[in-house]
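May I ask you to review the protein record following this short note?
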Amino acid sequence: MPEICAGGELERRVPNAHLCLRTVSICGILLFLSIACFAAQGPATDNGRRTGRLEGTVSTPGSSSKVHVAGAKVQASGSVTVQTETNGEGEFAFRELPPGAYVLTANAPGLEAEQTVTVGINQAVQVALQLKPSRVATTIDVSATDTAARTTAPTQTVGEKTLRDAPNVNERLETLLPLVPGVVRGPDGHINLKGARNTQSGALVNSANVTDPATGSPAMNLPIDVVSSVEVVSNPYDPQYGKFTGAVSSVETKTGNYEKYHYSIQNVLPRLRDRDGSIVGIGAATPRATFTGPLVRDKLAFTQSLEYRFVRTPVNSLPPLERDTTLESVDSYTQGDLKIGPTQTATVSLAVFPQKLRYMGLNTFTPQPATADLHLRGYQVYAQVRYLTGDESALISQISYKTYDADVSAQSDDPYQLFIETTEGGYFNRQARRTSRLEWQESYQFAPRHFLGTHEFKAGLNYAHSSYDGQQTFLPVELMGVSGLPIERITFTPPTTFGVDQDETAWFAGDHWSPSNRVTLDLGLRFDNDTVTGTTHVAPRAGFILALTNDGKTLLKGGVGMFYDRVPLIYPVFEHLPERTVSILDENGEVSSANEYVNRIGGGLHNPESISWNAAIERQVLERLTIKVAYEQRNTTKDFTVSPVSGAISSVTLLSNTGRDSYREYQVAGRYQSERFTLNGSYVRSRAYGNLNDPALFFGNYPQAVIQPDARARLPFDAPNRLLFWADVSGPKKLTLIPVWDLHTGFPYSPENQFREYVGPRDTRRYPRFSSMDLQVSRPFSLHVGEKRRLQVRAGFGVFNVFNHFNPRDVQNNLDSDRFGEFFNDAWREYRGKFVFQF
């Protein structure tokens, strides 16, 4: 989608509407329900006809979870034959079928499924089709309350259509994750899943771990064109999931086309950079091209996607020509899909994702000369083989190898000085990091067994070897007081070089048990071991679904599970990092006192652990309207934290597992679906609370210079109240409109003094309330290219922060500043064009 600036950057602000959040929340929910109920009045008379409904989902095999497939062709053949395609969430529906038996088939490139179902009068039959890589048919009698194939964990999927059509200012996969209730983009720009730091959550691509072994953060970029869906699971009771204490995001890529060639090209025009009404260079250039097609028809499909990104992102409170961070990257993804035989398929891929970020850390109080540059280089080789040992059993073998290197450099070697209103000098940290991970997985899905109901057993094992070699350099830092003179100096010991390796093994077994057609249980057990901590952990999990009514329209879901996190490799080498000395200076700049801090790991390293549980009621209120009321809670202990400890004889910078985090969430959500539009609405009341001194803040990609004593408070990404509404509307003239309205409480922050010491309780003040309405409008066109060929074009535009609401990203939190409490760096309204060429 070419990012064509339709109107430049508008620097006009509108006054912040001082509405009561509770009133807005209630009005929003009532508006959502009113629209849905009004729209539902038309088709509600279907129940008076002698027909039934057949609806369900289509998902893929061979992943850590059932991932829904968009665009699959579904056909029901019986007394009548009808066809449809699955929507962006992999769902399909036939709403007025004469009663009787139907053969239900689903097809996607290289995959298919078949079931026989019986539809009764006024009966809603739910079916879950799982595609298989050969022409294997299963005949199953499905009742109206077939809940066995439904997941017990809180799960939400962003499907292919939403990925393609939703407003996406960065055209990145992670930008759309906040469409999931409970997922927010924090003040540091990172995505926080369900109240967890991004280092606490899991990140999978085709069920392979894609986090950085050194920091634990997600560390892989894919062109969005190759992504089929992304699933967010906050409490995955499937024991195949492990090595996190928060939620997990699971990305599935598209299967290559076995039958015909398909090309797409977009973003061919650059976006100009507008500064105060003048065009000053290029604001962004992000051309992207994707190809898929058969190398050997019906045997071998090939996919290649290549994207170049040059993007300038402004800090709007800085001077016009000194306000941009610059990202330059090349993301390449190559995939081959192979049908080895009637019962065996394979997928092989290579992802390459180098990037360079200039002026990392740029904000209102840190201008370009005082920022750092981050240079990342990485690639991943991946292979998965799926072997069907029977109609409903399969062995899945998978191996991946990933490297991820990071270098941090500065703009100059000038002394780094922290003033109250600004920062001067060259950034104080330099680092070079080399990491790799080799991972092997085996899992086996057994055919259903029938005793005391139906059992679907699954078992597997996982082995991973990770390595980290690095070098860290810290240069002196000076804190400048109100007088403009230095009041404190931080010095460090000489640069250090270090390395560490880690082996991890895991075993798991699970049972998806349906004692009856109204009860489903997920029971699982996972064992984890790693060589850094030298311990083995047992993680039991259990989830359930109970159909409370005979019609299967009211479901009670819940579960409880234990989870153990990984140990990022920057922690075992903590005692080898440069150590600091903090000196207090008098008015003449002389040292009046000094404290030498030695790096120490307190009590050894342990795996953080969490216990999570949830309960939810889902009700199909009307034929097209579903409402959910849910609660979930997570308590994490043994989390990593770092804090300076001053003593009479010696002082230490202590890394320990004494941190504790908690997250609780109340959620009310609704979804209305019709042939022309889908409306989603949710209200989330949450609380994210825990220790604030995350070690990644001081020893990650962008270290902070000053380490104050640790404290417990609301976490930086805590947003207690959040309203989220978004719709997918099929308008007239083939228009697709997707508006998204996100309204939530502002993030917390803490006041500090000129010594960067926090004053008063932590994180009790907040940014202004965040409110943003985004809109994407698009339409397909068909152009003649020659006599027999047509060029498919999708064109449109996006508007971000439609009402230009004041959404600041920086605050002056220093009590000694005349501007204390003022907010800066507003996210102004932006425009984007969209042109996609397909043939």
User: Anything to note?
Assistant: The chain is about 5% helix and 55% strand. The helical segments are 21-40, 160-165, 696-699. Residues 1-49, 134-149 have pLDDT under 50 and may be disordered. The CA atoms of residues 184 and 494 lie 39 Å apart.
